[in-house]
Amino acid sequence: MDILSLSKNLISFQTITGNREQIQKCLEYIKQTLEPTGALVDIFSFKDASPVLFARNQNSEHFDALVLGHIDVVEGTNEMFCAKQKNGRLYARGALDMKSFAAVAINSMAYVMEKKLDLKFGLIFSTDEEQGSKSLEAFLKTHPNLKSDIVLDNDVGGDITKIVVRCKNPVYVKLVAKGKAAHGSTPWEGIDANEQLLKTWQNIRKVFPHYSELSGKPKQTWIDTLHFAKISGGNVANIISDSAEALLDFRLTEKSTVQELKNKLLPLMEDGVAFEVVMQSIPVVIDENHPHLLAYKNLAEHVLQKPTLFEYIGGATDSRAFYERGAVIIMHSGTGDGMHAANEWVDINSVMKLADIQIQFLRNLGQKK
What we know:
By secondary structure, this protein is of the alpha+beta class. It has helices at 3-12, 20-34, 95-115, 134-142, 193-207, 258-265, 291-304, 320-323, 348-367; strands at 40-44, 52-56, 62-70, 84-86, 89-91, 121-126, 147-153, 162-167, 169-178, 225-233, 243-252, 273-280, 284-285, 309-313, 328-331, 336-337, 345-347.
């Protein structure tokens, strides 16, 4: 299968999250590409979520290996959906995140079918990963017993010499401050919700320090972090605000629990300020000595002819859903940069190397059964 041409074709669909027409066309294209191989391909639709494509070599609820990915992208100009090839790189919206790696997964599915590998294999593409992955959540609700021994997650783009073995737990907390309105000229007659919220903010920062490019990178990055994602309060200049809100984005390591976070936050609230956990997940931590992971690492080093390192990242992963179901998650992708930016690119050779690694890993897995 021509992975480069396939990548360009996938990129040409403007599958911006929420663009149902383009998403459906892209899924139909993938289905038409795979069906001649004999693969079973279904597109699942949901009332309150975008569709999901599920391809597999046989009907099963328990797979030896699955590849998990998504075909939606963030917004971009029309020109960004026409891939440009230059100096060994592919520039386009979705080149790195993650249509070139979706092409790798499609290629793996075709290879499994062509070689009739002795393993239960499939791929799952969600279509709203950039905005919360409700589609994958809806799909898994309709497949409560779906499991896989191994999940290959190629949605961690950046460096093919690094394999991610830990992801933090994203926890979103909403702060709500209630005050008392008054005229701006007589602030002593009111209670400024903005002030109460900011005081609470300062309290929280004493426990969770602020980091930025200006402050520099901490020596130890595998720590709990926080950024204030959104803050709002007040309507007009001359009225003391009687309400204010903020959304906090915590990233917790496996050493911290959500309950521990709640216990830390509770005494930090100023009068009139309360908090609510509006979203939480789980950290993903893979045993670095697990046989499947070590087999993959050794194979990657053989193909790349250079060492690979284990990496910890602060971002979350959709594969956590299968981690909860007992899967070993192998998070690995090609090299690139500019994710979500105007100059997004992926190294073409790294895409081909990733495809080679994935195929050889699946072949070896089938031979060991």
